[in-house]
Specification:
Pfam families: UPF0223 (PF05256). With 94 residues, the chain is mostly helical. It contains four helices and two strands; from the N terminus they run αβαααβ.
């Protein structure tokens, strides 16, 4: 499914940091658009947390991303933690 929305990126991040955050957001999208390995969710989330270590910033980015895309960072991460050897495939709500 073709999506047109702006990603919640911080202009102060380096190119490498933006790529890291984008990799995680793309993994979240994949979880809703057909499924992705839980291990990939965990790996990209850990890299994301090195760029965005503060829980408050993570929640803000998650809200902004959900508003733009309909996809929930928290749900994807929780699903990956619940079944670390499996796949994460979710359905977007509303």
């Amino acid at each position: 499914m073709e999506q047109n929305y702006a990603y919640p990126l911080d202009p102060s991040w380096s190119v490498a940091e933006i790529e890291t955050v984008m990799a995680f957001l793309n993994t979240v999208e994949a979880a809703y658009e057909g499924g992705v390995a839980a291990a990939k969710v965990q790996a990209t989330y850990q890299a994301f947390k090195r760029v965005v270590p503060a829980k408050s910033e993570e929640k803000r980015l998650g809200r902004d991303f959900a508003r733009a895309s309909g996809y929930q960072l928290y749900e994807v991460v929780q699903a990956a933690l619940a079944n670390p050897q499996g796949r994460v495939a979710l359905t977007a709500r509303g």
